[in-house]
């Protein structure tokens, strides 16, 4: 007699299903699971947030052992793995494939070897397809990241990876994939490349990259060269040469970098952080700087560079921060530390958070932690001015609504009023604006009107919001190639605004745009007052200060002071430190001392101090 049992289970019930299989096998050995590929796919898909790695690995091991370790079952596992990892929906949602790749070293043998040996040829076959230089990277981005992850996991040797990338860089039809592979390999495997590679191989790789000159790869090349400490030869220029800086006003090219009586001069560096510094805030009341970065430490500095206080974030690090000056509250966006993932690499990452610190007269003390359980990221934060205890954030939020009951990611600008809740930990947004279509990278206030604020995004738009209104009240920009209004041609990285209706935006398209708020309309369509391009590299940060019309500007290649008072902006490169050391990429800039002192922080873990004179 044959007995067929059909059971429909959800992902959370798979452990119970395995218990059922074991019970049935205690009665007979002739028990088979019909839809193992589907079970594998369900399990592997649970790895997306990195919180179930050990559990999923254990359940897959059980399924393998309970179903006979056959060649067919290995094929089922490989097919399920690749269907999840190479699903383009991951690219649309900006989801990394790395959490899925971490399953490979946890698979039992011989499954680990079989999946690994089948995966690499599949990845390389897809990456070596002939494509135009301008090809959409969505078609192969996951494969490039999977390749880099295999190098990181030491399933592919760094020397072999370099040889492959060099060969592809030299072929125009493979160059787009090769540059993407190299960028992801630098991102995921930088210590392996810089510490374990043959210097001759790295020199050959650098030489191959020098021959990549297409504009489409400008940002990739800047990132790779800055990360590796490489630089390509630059033609000699003088301070008043148009080759140093390409400026435009009303669409016409203007002369560039000029010498002038006012500039930024390197003074000293504060040392204390152990990893990259992402964010700073200046407390005018106590005349101190607060910085935070990848090491999870918040440091309060005196103006002469002494550490007056350190605050350890238990499970997060700061990616953005701001101070509410009248209420003496420090607000910090927290990203989960990798080491907070639990023992034995279980990667039980805590959700992102917003932390409020209060000044008790002697130091900063945590007042509350808002855990954002339904969010993937809180990317930026800005405290509202005046006596109102409110702030705005940019957030990536998990929402239901996809077919099949899955989740999607929504990008939201959130407005919070702390007085609306009895405790900070239970705070909910008063308003959520969901009109951005991609990651919200920055928010800023509009000083002439305390009800207004702005946001910039990876969707190329700058939007204006009114906390009293439940929708966007205007956009800056003109109609782009897509047929939609956009401010930039690539991701916007930063915004700042003055009390004279001047707004600055900058981004990965290497441009800094000046806007006049008075030209804004509900329908958008207003062009910039001026356009500035400094050194052909992406702009990381702009910070208005020094005078009502000047701003410090950080790019991938340098630090500048720019005067936007005229229709032809005037820019000057910051004077270097006396030892002529190469400055790190500055992720944040903060003015202090009546805006005569500039603090700059970034990749080299220092807080560099510049004076304006």
From TrEMBL:
The protein's UniProt keywords, in alphabetical order, are:
Repeat, WD repeat
| One GO BP annotation of this record | ribosomal large subunit assembly
One Pfam family matching this protein: WD40
PROSITE patterns the UniProt entry points to: WD_REPEATS_2, WD_REPEATS_REGION
Where do the record's region annotations for Disordered lie?
A: 234-255
Q: Which GO terms describe its cellular component?
A: nucleolus
Quote the SMART domains the UniProt record gives. Answer: WD40
Which parts are the WD repeats? 270-301, 433-466, 485-519
| Bias type Polar residues, positions | 239-251
Full protein name: TFIID subunit TAF5 NTD2 domain-containing protein
């Amino acid at each position: 007699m044959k007995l067929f049992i059909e059971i429909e289970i959800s992902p959370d019930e798979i452990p119970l299903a395995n218990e059922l299989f074991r019970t049935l096998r205690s009665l007979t050995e002739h028990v088979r699971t019909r839809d193992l590929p589907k079970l594998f796919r369900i399990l592997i898909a649970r790895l997306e947030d990195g919180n179930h790695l050990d559990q999923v690995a254990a359940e897959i091991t059980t399924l393998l052992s309970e179903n006979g370790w056959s060649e067919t079952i290995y094929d089922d596992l490989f097919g399920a793995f690749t269907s999840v990892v190479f699903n383009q929906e991951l690219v649309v949602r900006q989801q990394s494939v790395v959490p899925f790749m971490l399953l490979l070293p946890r698979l039992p043998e011989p499954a680990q070897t079989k999946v690994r040996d089948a995966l690499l040829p599949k990845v390389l076959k897809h990456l070596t397809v002939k494509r135009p230089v301008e090809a959409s990277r969505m078609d192969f981005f996951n494969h490039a990241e999977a390749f880099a992850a295999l190098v990181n996991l030491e399933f592919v040797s760094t020397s072999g990876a370099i040889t492959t990338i060099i060969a592809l860089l030299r072929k125009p039809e493979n160059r787009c994939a090769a540059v993407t592979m190299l960028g992801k390999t630098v991102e995921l495997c930088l210590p392996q490349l810089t510490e374990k590679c043959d210097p001759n191989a790295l020199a050959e790789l650098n030489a191959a990259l020098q021959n990549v000159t297409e504009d489409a790869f400008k940002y990739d090349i800047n990132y790779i060269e800055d990360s590796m400490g490489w630089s390509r030869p630059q033609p000699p220029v003088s301070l008043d040469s148009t080759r140093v800086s390409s400026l435009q006003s009303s669409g016409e090219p203007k002369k560039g970098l000029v010498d002038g009586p006012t500039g930024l001069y390197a003074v000293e560096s504060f040392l204390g952080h152990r990893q990259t510094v992402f964010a700073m805030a200046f407390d005018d009341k106590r005349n101190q700087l607060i910085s935070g970065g990848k090491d999870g430490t918040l440091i309060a500095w005196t103006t002469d560079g002494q550490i007056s206080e350190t605050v350890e974030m238990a499970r997060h690090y700061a990616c953005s921060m701001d101070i509410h000056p009248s209420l003496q509250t420090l607000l910090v966006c927290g990203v989960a530390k990798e080491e907070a993932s639990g023992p034995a690499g279980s990667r039980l990452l805590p959700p992102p958070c917003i932390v409020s610190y209060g000044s008790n007269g002697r130091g900063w003390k945590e007042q509350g932690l808002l855990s954002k359980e339904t969010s993937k990221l809180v990317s930026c934060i800005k405290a509202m001015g005046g006596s109102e205890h409110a702030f705005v954030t940019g957030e990536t939020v998990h929402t239901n609504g996809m077919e099949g009951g899955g989740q999607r990611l929504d990008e939201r600008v959130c407005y919070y009023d702390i007085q609306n809740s009895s405790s900070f930990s239970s705070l909910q947004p008063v308003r959520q604006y969901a009109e951005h279509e991609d990651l919200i990278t920055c928010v800023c206030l509009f000083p002439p009107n305390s009800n207004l604020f702005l946001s910039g995004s990876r969707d190329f738009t700058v939007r204006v919001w009114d906390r009293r209104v439940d929708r966007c009240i205007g956009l800056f920009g003109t109609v782009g190639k897509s047929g939609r209004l956009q401010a930039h041609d690539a991701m916007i990285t930063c915004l700042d605004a003055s009390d004279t209706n001047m707004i600055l935006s900058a981004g990965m398209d290497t441009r800094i745009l000046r806007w006049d708020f008075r030209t804004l309309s509900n329908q958008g369509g207003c062009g910039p007052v001026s356009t500035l391009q400094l050194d052909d590299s992406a702009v990381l940060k702009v910070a208005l200060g020094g005078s009502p019309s000047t701003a410090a500007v950080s790019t991938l290649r340098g630090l500048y002071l720019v005067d936007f008072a005229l229709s032809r902006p005037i820019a000057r490169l910051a004077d270097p430190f006396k030892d002529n050391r190469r400055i790190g990429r500055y992720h944040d800039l903060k003015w202090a001392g009546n805006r005569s002192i500039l603090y700059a922080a970034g990749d080299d873990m220092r807080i560099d101090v510049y004076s304006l004179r």
